[in-house]
């Protein structure tokens, strides 16, 4: 994304964990130390490919550390997590952080129509036919059939597998190490390759791409059922693993990764999370060769999507060094697109249903458009402090987040007036007024609104047009939402607001949830 950027890495994960462990995969004190070191070093952007602990929120080291970074003009871009597709799993839900979901790119590595990953470049791809054997059929005497089906260590008979392609199932979960460990078992058993099949409950639209110790094909549940049907139809099943085919311009794309964590925001549903989605499936990454036996490997996860957006933020910072972290965040969010390369709504991981903003946030990032967004929803640390003030006990919380312990909270705080680039209205009673401020960061222009209201909701905007006569001018507008609450869906419903001057498109998703009757 930003090939001329200089990188510095700070270690947060250690083998020893403190009793006050609150952040997934590391000790929060180490996370805070890393952030403070980065702040002291004067970095411009922080990439945080790690999920925070949702239960802590404003009482954890990540929230405090990222807030300190924001105060020093440093935007943190963080992964939304890999706990999808379940609802309410999005992590790093702090409003001063840009959280990122993961979706596919328009490139597919395939072998005879199936997903293929050849990560160990030193191993020659076997092009001839080899016998196929399932883990269950290859189990060692006394081993559990289920363990052998998963190709778990100690369950496979080497004498049955040597010189064959081993077929393994996953454990009904999306865990990268399942693939890796199974491939190690296959290698140690003398297999020439492995076919790894995902279970039905994970869905048919996603397979992980991780390090494999042998040449591996990864199949979805549907393709796996076809394979098992073939194996059961003959006494001598055979297969070959062909060379990889790199296909570009794949449509439709992007498609959401099913692993990508989803909203609604469990900490505060009035803030939509994740904020955007970015490429995070089958991403070519540099890997430590002493671990992965190669300097490069294909990786999948929101940890891959996050640095894409961090690079975009670094480019914006270079072009607009005077912009606040909120302005950079707004530029990325309001120029993101909810459409795929067919001009249709981004699809969810099952490839048939449309994804929602709980999967992709404001949409898939558009780097070039983000450099010139036209308008931004700007904020400063005091806006975020007012947000924190809504969480009791305010005195203790404020002390953790700011050195300005004497900061006086406002008497009231209405999240509908919080100048966030996306708009979320929960506990909607049939009437609501949303206030936002837009700052002109482009040339003078007149912006007109285009509204797609959520089903059953009427929306009026005041004023009808926004006329900007100069740069940095700020104009306040209101959205007035009305609905017959008795005939409104009790589920979350979605719409959008677009301000445009015919050149710039400033888009905000709208999320409405009616109050329980």
UniProtKB/TrEMBL annotation:
Keywords per UniProt: Hydrolase, Protease, Serine protease, Signal
Pfam families for this protein: fn3_6, Peptidase_S8
One GO term of the biological process aspect: proteolysis
InterPro entries linked: Peptidase_S8/S53_dom, Peptidase_S8/S53_dom_sf, Peptidase_S8_Ser-AS, Peptidase_S8_subtilisin-rel, SBT, Subtilisin-like_FN3
Domain of life, source organism: Eukaryota
Domain Peptidase S8/S53 per the UniProt entry, residue ranges: 2-363
GO molecular function per UniProt: serine-type endopeptidase activity
Residue span, Subtilisin-like protease fibronectin type-III domain: 417-512
Alphabetized PANTHER family for the sequence: PROPROTEIN CONVERTASE SUBTILISIN/KEXIN (PTHR10795)
Family: Belongs to the peptidase S8 family.
Protein name stated in the entry: Uncharacterized protein
Organism annotation: Chenopodium quinoa (Quinoa)
